[in-house]
Amino acid sequence: MKTLILASGSPRRREIWQQVGLEFSVVPSSKEEVITRQDPREAVMELALMKAEDIAGQTERGSLVVGADTVVVKDGKILGKPENEEDAARMLRLLSGGRHQICTGVACILDGQKKVFCEETSVEFYDLSEEEIKEYIDTGEPMDKAGGYGIQGRAAGFIRGIEGDYYNVMGFPIARFLHLLKKWNR
Ligand SMILES: Cc1cn([C@H]2C[C@H](O)[C@@H](COP(=O)(O)OP(=O)(O)OP(=O)(O)O)O2)c(=O)[nH]c1=O
């Protein structure tokens, strides 16, 4: 097995990798995330690749470096992490009572070889009252998460349904990644 490096500071991604028994090191990229593309799939793949390239330049041969980036997409518009509590409330109001998508881009680099993909999951929210939104923001949970919520936390109570990979919503499509690794090792 190659040396695996997770180029992400996200505690959720670390948990998911640990859950499936991967052995890896964490080396987060400190590159600033600037979304320049309108197309969400292109945007997350570009950012994931930027994070992986940043770390791949500092690693030894034989290291597989993996970067990822997650955004929420509502009516074609990208929602990243909220800038402040008011921004989080705006995002949650937008997501209330409807369906949105989560796009996670994943970029893998091994000795200059690159593989990049994007996984999409659809999530539907129940209607949220202003009081629920305020209470949720008061927990502090929305602030470091795309779209202002965490499906793995209290926002579990907002979810009417989900179509696709749950772990993709949490920030990393683990099964598709492992499938890619198996094919790569052949
Ligand atoms: C929608 C949603 C997002 N998130 C999180 C996953 C990601 O950590 C975060 C999106 O931010 P990202 O910019 O993808 O990742 P990050 O800043 O946490 O880490 P790094 O840049 O070092 O790779 O939102 C959840 O944890 N649960 C959810 O339900």
Automatic annotation (TrEMBL):
<dbReference type="GO" id="GO:0036218">
    <property type="term" value="F:dTTP diphosphatase activity"/>
</dbReference>
<feature type="site" description="Important for substrate specificity">
    <location>
        <position position="70"/>
    </location>
</feature>
<protein>
    <recommendedName>
        <fullName>dTTP/UTP pyrophosphatase</fullName>
        <ecNumber>3.6.1.9</ecNumber>
    </recommendedName>
</protein>
<dbReference type="Pfam" id="PF02545">
    <property type="entry name" value="Maf"/>
</dbReference>
<comment type="similarity">
    <text>Belongs to the Maf family. YhdE subfamily.</text>
</comment>
<feature type="site" description="Important for substrate specificity">
    <location>
        <position position="152"/>
    </location>
</feature>
<keyword id="KW-0378">Hydrolase</keyword>
<dbReference type="GO" id="GO:0036221">
    <property type="term" value="F:UTP diphosphatase activity"/>
</dbReference>
<dbReference type="InterPro" id="IPR003697">
    <property type="entry name" value="Maf-like"/>
</dbReference>
<keyword id="KW-0963">Cytoplasm</keyword>
<dbReference type="GO" id="GO:0009117">
    <property type="term" value="P:nucleotide metabolic process"/>
</dbReference>
<comment type="function">
    <text>Nucleoside triphosphate pyrophosphatase that hydrolyzes dTTP and UTP. May have a dual role in cell division arrest and in preventing the incorporation of modified nucleotides into cellular nucleic acids.</text>
</comment>
<dbReference type="InterPro" id="IPR029001">
    <property type="entry name" value="ITPase-like_fam"/>
</dbReference>
<dbReference type="GO" id="GO:0005737">
    <property type="term" value="C:cytoplasm"/>
</dbReference>
<keyword id="KW-0546">Nucleotide metabolism</keyword>
<feature type="site" description="Important for substrate specificity">
    <location>
        <position position="12"/>
    </location>
</feature>
<feature type="active site" description="Proton acceptor">
    <location>
        <position position="69"/>
    </location>
</feature>
